[in-house]
Amino acid sequence: MRFGLTEEQELLQETLRGFVQGECPPKRLRELFDAGTGHDAALWKGLAEMGIAGLAVPESHGGAGLEVLELALAAEVLGDGALPGPFLGHSLACLAIVAGGSEAQQRRWLPALASGDAIGTVALAEEGEEWDPADWALEVRDGTLSGVKRHVPHAGHADLILVGTSGGSFAAVERGAAGLAIEPVAGSDRTRPVCRIAFDATACEPLPETSGVGARVRDAGLVLLAADAFGGARKLVDMSVEYANSREQFGVTIGHFQALKHQLADMAIEIEPSRALYWYAAHAVDHEPKEGPRMAAIAKSHLCDRYLQIARDATEAHGGIGYTWEGDTQIWFKRAMFDRVFLGTPRVHRDRAADLTNQLRSLEQQLARL
């Protein structure tokens, strides 16, 4: 049994890390963050040329044919670099079409999505912060949609929007469709902008496969958020250590102070053991159907909580500069806030994980009595 990554998976992260460091160094990241659009066409083109846009798209449609684990490994590196771009929504849109689309829909959209020529996203949340597929109320009527979706990532840049509909299924809406209104929403994370979308008898194309597709996309999204949180938290630990070793006070670097040493050690201990948590959750989503939903919920709730706490600790470790717009820790702090609430708060998913655990135990007891 292998407990680590394969050489190919390690190479994926190493190559992507080199791209992020080379193409989006701190100065460029700060420029994009200050601009607030959350998108840079050149960065997205570079990622697409590396194959990141089509990681989970089958090879027959121009992608790499990989799994949720590889998507999560990429998400970790992008979270480490706080890279602006539509990776999250695009990846989930690809998964939705792969799992639920017809052959015609797959032939039409997957090659363009895999190459990055088309950008996809998913519209999941409804009024009242209803993220769960079982709670989606938007219905397809006579081939159209009417209603509202909230917190849609990179909707303003998307060529294709996969809209969650009642019954946990999806419907595809194209950019520029009549009756489609996209309204940017002021959010804290300027690397991943969100929008409110209103549909008014907007033409759509339902995806024919409905069984479990919404839940699979939701669970994959939870894993990607957990992986992003892990990468971002690790970055904040590294930034804090670097600052402690360079900032001087009373004639010595502040890293000599015992209290700060303990704080930095606690930050590292909080996050490092969680790496395997998101690895296994990603594996389970693809290969352990009984465990996948529960592990995705646990990974998301645990890692996103840890990320936000480490962001607070990193801000304190940086002293006064950590609380200012001029300081860079705020970029990751705001990504931590996004990761925590997108697709549901940690409390929601802890409750889900507890319910799923009880259901699994009940099923095991029933089987044991047979």
Number of strands: 10
Q: Strand content of the residues, in percent?
A: 5-15%
The biggest beta sheet, please? 4 strands, mixed
Average of per-residue pLDDT values: 94
Report on the structure:
This protein is an alpha+beta fold and 370 residues long. 54% of the residues lie in helices and 14% in strands. It is built from 12 helices and 10 strands. It has helices at residues 7-23, 26-35, 41-49, 68-81, 87-100, 103-115, 213-244, 258-271, 275-287, 292-317, 329-341, 346-369, and strands at residues 120-123, 140-141, 144-153, 160-165, 169-174, 180-185, 194-203, 205-206, 248-249, 252-253. Strand 6 and strand 7 (194-203) form a beta hairpin. Helix 9 (275-287) runs antiparallel to helix 10 (292-317). The mean pLDDT is 94.
Question: How are the secondary structure elements laid out?
Answer:
Blueprint lengths: L6 H17 L2 H10 L5 H9 L18 H14 L5 H14 L2 H13 L4 E4 L16 E2 L2 E10 L6 E6 L3 E6 L5 E6 L8 E10 L1 E2 L6 H32 L3 E2 L2 E2 L4 H14 L3 H13 L4 H26 L11 H13 L4 H24 L1
Parallel strand pairs: 1-4
Antiparallel strand pairs: 2-3, 3-7, 4-5, 5-8, 6-7, 9-10
Helix pairs in contact: 1-4, 4-7, 4-9, 5-6, 5-7, 7-8, 7-9, 7-10, 7-11, 8-10, 9-10, 10-11, 10-12
